[in-house]
Write a structure and sequence with these properties.
binds adenosine-5-diphosphoribose; 9 helices; 9 strands
Length: 270
């Protein structure tokens, strides 16, 4: 077990070994992540203690509000710049999930996160379905031109408060999905397909209260998959899960991977 896992209580350690056993036996593992997988990278979650929605009103963050007034966009860009458009690094949870991929155990990642940290941890983009977009990009709502976030950060830091598109003067918007905005349909359909065809679905760091993303573990269980939930607080799907591991993803995931590697080694030695 990695050193930090010595702080893991015995009953959780037993669940970690059971989870590793389920991953070892699975043929098609879908990992589903929410904001809780990134809090140990320094990105606040939304509904946990001190989360974003305890500091800001989500009704201010609708697509309609953003496009309806420059004053709303100026407010939004200040928050976006200081929260989503900073450079963050993957934490041990992201790195453990990437290790599952290197061990050939990962079918795909379905994420609600927009922070690009699964890509940064080394998982290829083809295996990542971003249901809520990715704020590494900013898009023009009129002509569709896309800008790397760093370019817009530079313009904001140079004093622009509501930077327009350089090509057509249209409204620029971070490429994350806002409330009231449609999810990218082809990505959602792919994520639904993988959820309905996996044999193990692992939820990491999500309250599972935002739809349609929260339908995915339901589709997986309805299609016969086993369910593991790694989360610091309870979720509506806990009673449908074979295993619920209550604790920090940055400790639990490395411990699961470590236990899995022990299993794979002993299986190869047979
Ligand atoms: N380890 C495990 N769980 C954690 C950790 C951690 N280090 N940190 C936080 N959590 C848990 C919190 O207790 C909470 O239950 O992760 C969960 C995060 O839930 P939310 O903040 O609701 O985030 P998420 O489920 O991803 O929200 C879904 O809501 O506002 C929208 O678009 C936004 O994609 C987001 C969607």
């Amino acid at each position: 077990m990695p050193k930090e896992s010595q702080s893991i209580p015995d009953e959780l350690t037993a669940l970690i070994h059971r989870a590793a056993d389920m991953v070892c036996r699975s043929q098609r593992l879908v990992v589903f992540t929410g904001a809780g997988v990134s809090t140990e990278s320094g990105i606040p979650d939304f509904r946990g203690p001190g989360g974003i929605w305890s500091r800001y009103d989500p009704d201010e963050f609708t697509y309609q509000k953003f496009v309806s007034s420059s004053a709303n966009r100026k407010k939004h860009w200040v928050i976006s710049r200081n929260m989503f458009m900073k450079e963050y690094e993957p934490n041990p949870a992201h790195l453990a999930i990437a290790e599952l991929d290197r061990l050939g155990r990962l079918d795909c990642i379905v994420t609600q996160n927009v922070d690009n940290l699964h890509q940064k941890s080394g998982v290829s983009q083809e295996k990542i379905y971003e249901l809520h977009g990715n704020t590494r990009w900013v898009k023009c709502l009129s002509c569709g031109r896309r800008y790397p976030a760093a370019e817009i950060v530079q313009r904001l830091d140079n004093g622009e408060e509501d930077p327009p598109c350089l090509s057509c003067k249209g409204i620029l918007k971070p490429d994350g999905v806002f409330f009231g905005e449609a999810l990218p349909q082809h990505i959602l359909q792919e994520a639904i397909f993988h959820s309905q065809h996996c044999d193990l679905f692992m939820v990491i760091g999500s309250t599972l209260v935002v739809y349609p993303a929260a339908y995915l573990p339901i589709y997986a269980v309805d299609a016969g998959a086993s369910l593991i939930i790694v989360n610091m607080t309870d979720t509506p799907m806990d009673s449908n899960a074979q295993l619920v591991l209550r604790g920090k993803a940055g400790e639990i995931l490395p411990a699961i991977v470590d236990s899995l590697k022990t299993r794979l080694r002993s299986r190869n030695d047979e």
